Amino acid sequence: MIELKTPREVEEMRPAGRLVHDVLQRLTEVAEVGTNLLDLDALAHQMIRDAGGTSCYIDYHPSFGASPFGKVLCTSVNDAVLHGLPHDYRLRDGDLLSVDFAVKVDGWVCDAARSFVVGTPDPEDLRLIDTTERALAAAIEVARPGNKIGDISAAIAGVARAEGYSINTDFGGHGVGREMHGDPHVANDGRAGRGIPLRPGLVIAIEPWFLATTDEIRTDPDGWTLRSADGSRGAHSEHTVAITEGDPIVLTA
Ligand code: MG
Questions:
Q1: Across-strand partners of 46?
Q2: How many domains does the chain have?
């Protein structure tokens, strides 16, 4: 079922969005060559506690998960792209790190992700990251009343294809509200003008993610981390976006 938020409820979601932004920003600042993924997770956990929030991930145990997630961040390195379980790993020069983070504050959830390189970047990694960011921006631009959910999907896919990337549609965006995942599903590929109409009060996480040279993924033995089938790198950009009568509100900006 699709829930629409009142303008007041959208305003109530802002503290969660702000905390998500602040955590991702802080992680981007502190992550460098030699940083341990477990220390990034611990930092995010402390920031949740300081803000009086609740992690959406630590007890998360969907049907596909081997056990509760147990951490507050997803950290996906290089050929890992989604659901990366933080583990004892120190970042190396040139690593491409994707961080995904969702938190509940005052009863509302917001969810966002970003990718960046620590140390010396490979230009191809920067192109991949930039493409996910431009796909996200293009999707947000069409997140307006009068458009359909398919316009968002088509905007994402158009940016990816123009750069020569293929698209995996096993995982995509989703409704966000009292819980992390709700209707509607927001696919990263689809046809413009199709699907449900976008209405004021619809709040969705939009999350393009692409792999450099494949659209196939594999799951690690940890039961969570998803990585490319061919070892090529992945990137992921996500914001929680509220559709309004006017311009969309990017709650996690
Ligand atoms: Mg997310």
A1: none
A2: 1
The 3-state DSSP class for residue 167 equals coil
Please give the pLDDT value at position 63.
79
| Strand runs labelled E in the chain | 54-55, 74-77, 80-82, 96-105, 108-117, 173-175, 182-186, 203-206, 209-211, 217-219, 226-228, 234-236, 239-242, 249-250
Rounded to two decimals, the pTM is 0.97
- Cα 116 to ligand 1 centre (Å): 16
User: N- to C-terminal Cα distance for the chain?
Assistant: 26
What pLDDT digit, counting tens, does each position of 51-61 carry? Answer: 999 999 999 98
Q: Is 187 within a domain? A: yes
**Position 2, amino acid:** I
Q: Does 92 fall in a domain?
A: yes
Residue 228 has pLDDT above 80, yes or no: yes
Q: Which residues are near ligand 1, the ion (C-beta closer than 5 Å)? A: 100, 111, 113, 238
